[in-house]
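We modelled the chain as a single entity of 107 amino acids. Its sequence is:
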Amino acid sequence: MTAWRDRQEFKARVLVWAEKLNVKVCGLYVRPMSTKWASCSTAGTLSFNDDLLDFDREVGDYVIVHELLHFSVPNHGKLWKSLMRAHLGDYEAAARRLQELGGGKKF
């Protein structure tokens, strides 16, 4: 897979996933973040680290779905893992890839 063309392509993908997961996005940002890959607020605002634009789309989808699922499941428990697997299959492979690329950033 290839890297994202630009912020707009990444944001469009977020909105595709948001629709699939029935999440209302009120604000969407791709910006520098020094310690995190992404964050979300209860008000419906999503922020994604702009370093993700350099990674392949599989890793991007992992981060996008990971964050969007937190609107309905606030932890990384069994339900969250089950939903990740239902939507992405072997999401753990993308998680490992992100960790390899990541320089210590977290969610």
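As a brief sanity check on the tokenised model: The domain at 7-101 is CATH 3.30.2010.10 (Zincin-like). The longest strand covers residues 27-31.
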